[in-house]
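Bench log. Compound arrived from synthesis this morning; before running ITC I wanted a structural hypothesis for how copper (II) ion sits in the protein. Inputs:
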Amino acid sequence: MRLPCLLLLSAAPLAAATVEGVITYQRAPSAGALAWVPGVTRAAASAAPVIDQKDKVFTPAVLAVRPGATITLRNSDSIQHNAYASDKAAEVTLDTGLNAPASETPIKVDWTAGKVVRFGCKIHPSMQVWIAALDTDAWAVPVAAEAEKTVRFTIADVPADAARVAVWTSKYGQVEIDLASGTGSGQLGPADKPAATITATRRP
Ligand SMILES: [Cu+2]
């Protein structure tokens, strides 16, 4: 009987790959940054997303969810906080009002996929967090590397033929890098005076 074997083969998914990238800034690194591979759906449901307000800091500092998802905003401090956004480009205006200590407030992410929206706290102007609506489960927040102006990201478990990776920064804009050949590069900021260069590689 050969048929069962054929069925198994045809149902086998493409081997997963990993996209690794390096962002090298010319000046100060961007406070907010996010990298993603578009259009990846993972079977495992992720945990309910939470942003914590603790010690006058939003944690995590950058979070991505599917459009339509609801994030739980938790206040773990003993003082009031707030979260608001006023982003004309993304058409997002939102204000949670005052968030009492030890409270939880829902934030509905009902804006267009691909938009990253900054939220602040009206009580503490130094507080900020970026929330992205993404049509993918494959994303990562770049983290500081060994060199001062270098950050790295790793997006695991993407399709073996993943052909693009997008990189967004709060300070220098956004770029999409072509990975069709397995490796690619891009830059942020003006073409004649880039604020950052990016290299990315897809590994089996
Ligand atoms: Cu606050």
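What the model suggests: The CA atoms of residues 17 and 160 lie 5 Å apart. The longest helix spans residues 3-11.
ITC booked for Thursday regardless.
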